[in-house]
Amino acid sequence: MTQLAKYNVKFLGAVGTVTGSKYLLTLDDKKILIDCGLFQGLKPLRELNWMDFHINPSEVDAVLLTHGHLDHCGYLPRLVKQGFCGPVYSTFPTADLVEIILTDSAKIQEEDAELANIHGYSKHSPALPLYDLKDVEHTLPLLHPIAVDKWLALDEEIRFRFRHNAHIPGASFIELKVKDKLIVFSGDIGRPNDPMLLAPDTPERADILFVESTYGNREHSEEITEDTLLRIINDCINKHGPLFVSSFTVDRAQDFMYLVWKLKQTKKIPDISVYLDSPMGVDVSKLFLKYPEWLAMDAGEFQEVFKNTKIVHSIKETQMLAKNKKLQIVIAGSGMMNGGRILSYLESQLENPNATFILPGYQAEGTRGRTLSEGGISVKLRGKYYRVNATIEHITTMSSHADRSEIIDWLGQVKNTPEKVFIVHGEKDAAKGLKAKLEEVYQWNCVIPQLNDEFELDL
Predict the structure, then answer these.
(1) For residue 102, what pLDDT is reported?
(2) Do 48 and 128 fall within a single domain?
(3) Is the domain of 213 the same as that of 229?
(4) What are phi and psi of 187, to 5 degrees?
(5) pTM of the full predicted structure?
(6) How many domains does the chain have?
(7) Whole domain around residue 262: which residue ranges?
(8) Hey, which residues does 357 pair with through a beta bridge?
(9) CATH code assigned at 185
(10) Peptide bond before 200: cis, by omega within 30 degrees of 0?
């Protein structure tokens, strides 16, 4: 049997894809998991969520979270269910988000399993949730938030800190010091000109670098998002039809709320009713107000944005709004249309030629959002196919991920040449595109790992 290196990393997710972020570090007698994300999208990826963890989770000493998106924290209840009982470190906003995200995820999984059993459209009998609310209850006490820029020691030779990274409130990149070496995990790098969040900090040194590549082979459009949204809303006004925004409820929903509010303030659109149909989106909006130090905008201004938005409180209200074919704007999760309240609007309005659906930002392989963004003529919803007659708009300028040039600029302050650069969190072409650019600009030697690859670390 091959003796494992004392210092190594195993890639358990977010390689060859943008979901399921998990990197297991073995640092002598310590095992540290960086992110603990759920796989989403393609069925073969989703099936990985049901597999047992690579090692006995009780052997993992700690989990470090870059941020609170489901693909970075959503596997935590499964890990705990299998025996993990160590601390989960994050920033303060991320800890709050994890509670919101995991609770919502468990509810959706319980509801989906119940519907599948009632209507019989699952091949499993009975259909079961990946985890439930009880599992989430057992997970939350393990959260240990710490302040950004504060070094925390895991033992005499290992310490780490979180640094601001825009993307969403609480998002960070991680600097992990092992002996005299610095390991940097980029997490999801935010945009330098985010209208709502402070610009990301940048690393100054990285001996070993893990860098995301979601948009590693392309640049974001220079089109102004406000102009795009104005055009779409005017089209809806002319058609007298409703507008539905399939939105990520962390940051993107709030961006839409803010942009619509601005258009109203400047009298560019009439006072159209705007609804936020996402319990999680409401909780996240309140979190923006709880942590104003993460915002680039004035918290009082966001309070006005929140007041301008009508909150949907019940499924009955959702059903009424979903049947309404008149002019209205409804923001509902989830952003890639793989679950959440947006499914009710798709069922009622996807075949309505006067309706419009907006897809915001990146749409992962295997999601309904990806199918619609690529011109699919029908999608399957809860066991039934629906024809696409509604207008589909894909707004890429609102992405919370840095594009290729922004990633290159973000790395521009690194003064040394990293010994190893691992390109992660990107589909195949995106990872290859970033690898080529990093080698061209910085002459760095880059590696694109595959799922379950293991690499020795020279520490």
Answers:
(1) 95
(2) yes
(3) no
(4) 60, -150
(5) 0.88
(6) 2
(7) 225-395
(8) 244, 392
(9) 3.60.15.10
(10) no
